Amino acid sequence: MNILDLTITQLHEGFRNKNFTSVEVTKAYLENIKKTDKEIGAYLLVTEGLALNQAEKADKLISLALSGVEGNGGDFPLLMGVPFSVKDAILVEGQKATAGSKILENYVAPYDATVIKKLKTQGAVILGKTNLDEFAMGVSTENSAFKVTKNPNDLTRVSGGSSGGSAASVAAKQAVYSLGSDTGGSIRLPASFCGVVGLNPTYGAVSRSGLISMASSLDQIGPITKTVEDCRIVFDAIKGKDPLDATSIESQISNFKSEIKNIKIGVPKEYFGRGINSNVKKIIEDAIKKAKKHGAKIVPISLPNSKYAVACYYIIVPSEVSANLARFDGIKYGLYEDAENLLDGYMKTRGRGFGIEVKRRIMLGTYSLSSGYYDAYYKKAQEVRQIIKEDFIDAFKKVDLIFSPVSPIPAFKIGEKTDDALSMYLMDIYTCPVKLAGLPAISLPVGNIGKLPVGLQIIGKYFEENKIFNIASQLEKML
Amino acid sequence: MISKDEVRHIAKLARLELTESETAKMQKDLSSILDYFDLLKKVKSEKLKAKNSGLKFKSNLRKDEVKEKPASLANNLIQAAPDKKDGYIKVKSIL
């Protein structure tokens, strides 16, 4: 048995049976990070001191629980003592939070994100902060101001993005699980490229307090894990309404059991058309056939307005970005470049602190919102967003879940697309429509092209994460 | 194709200093992306009007009341500022 292969429930059982301690598990992970991360580059910061401290505390609480003096029948939280990594856009008090940007290179988080508070309450162990595209803008981590995270399956290829460091850390056994964030595909795409499970929860299911904002009408925090079961455990731990995030909702997440033989799976024809790699297509179709063989009813559906999604998304997101990133003015936090007057200080600080993709989006957003262009771009995009959403709502009248690829191609070569912003944007083609509608979706590894993993996207109805988990875990066992 | 002057104007509105090479790159990139956005012109506005029934999210406002936070939080927040004095953030004079 390799301790680094164990899932959350297996670790929990191991702690309960005193097979190993959290300190031992944490040390094994820290050692593996030291051994492998020079090559992979998943971490921006390893919080060794914090991790060992939390692990020791967890061990004390576990032995206290097992001794029975607490009168809790030897129970302790599932995530207690389990080491995980955190995307560097999520705040951990007292630790640096760079969001992958030079402008926040020396920023120390003044408080914990709500998701971190929740995991700390469970006794989880924080191994470090993982790499991402600057401010989560990108699909490959190549936009990080610090480094590129390589794909653990093939070091010449990207890990996907923006939560590339998170996905790579789980795939390379440098963390049991990770927290990422998904705005257009930033959890599902790297999960698909690296061959791990990644959930983008329903908009509002998880608090974003303490997540450095990119586009607030879309950003969601979610888990990246080894298995579907782990994904459910982490999601259950972080979900729920939070007074610090006005868009968070008390989850009406249904708890029914669904079996694959009783469900209807919608397959949108638009997601298998032009531009999809033929091997990706075959792997996804094979997964659908397996579901069919086990009794699922396969229903061809149409999401006709999805073809507008990328254009719609890349107007709405930059518009929100241009507003959200106005806060980086060199005064409240982060980098400051001195200048003659206040205006020049803004211009210089932002000119030097932001990378090219961030600038591009701020420019696009400023343009889309500017007088004379607002109606043609921003307003139009908001209207189109609505019809994209209604496509899904109509489809879900006929089916329980929708299956599609996560991405039209597997992980691409580092540097292959860096000069072509639009081709990067088109990587979101199957993931961003889901976000515009606010729906939950998982990426489940279902096959490989050579060394490169391919993820199946399973999209559910609002707050039906549990149905996604049920079916995904049944599929996971078949593959 | 948008002009370099337009790029410079937007950059100024966005409070971004761009180098000459960045300006040239922006001109090229923004032009090709804006061309791609033309796709949305194909969506007929009648279709939008008919469809925009609106799925409404409930507004979710908290009570307007002061909540006490630990002094350490205020301190942490001030500490993050590049320039500060006596617990205040310093800003260049604007008058």
What does this structure look like?
- Chain A has 15 helices and 13 strands.
- Chain A has helices at residues 8-16, 22-40, 48-67, 114-122, 164-171, 188-194, 228-238, 278-293, 309-324, 342-353, 356-369, 375-395, 421-425, 432-437, 465-478, and strands spanning 43-46, 83-87, 125-130, 150-151, 154-158, 177-182, 197-200, 220-225, 264-268, 297-301, 401-405, 441-449, 452-459.
- In chain A, the strands form two sheets. In chain A, strands 1-3-2-6-8-7-12-13-11-9-10 form an eleven-stranded mixed beta sheet, sandwiched between helices. A two-stranded antiparallel sheet of chain A has the order 4-5.
- In chain A, a hairpin with a 2-residue loop joins strand 4 (150-151) and strand 5.
- The radius of gyration of chain A is 22 Å and the shape is globular.
- By secondary structure, chain B is mainly alpha-helical.
- Chain B has helices spanning 4-13, 20-37, 45-51, 71-79, and strands spanning 84-85, 88-89.
- Chain B has a two-stranded antiparallel ribbon.
- The interface between A and B is large, with 60 and 49 residues.
- Chain B: It catalyses: L-glutamyl-tRNA(Gln) + L-glutamine + ATP + H2O = L-glutaminyl-tRNA(Gln) + L-glutamate + ADP + phosphate + H(+); L-aspartyl-tRNA(Asn) + L-glutamine + ATP + H2O = L-asparaginyl-tRNA(Asn) + L-glutamate + ADP + phosphate + 2 H(+).
- Chain B: It comes from Candidatus Staskawiczbacteria bacterium RIFCSPHIGHO2_01_FULL_34_27.
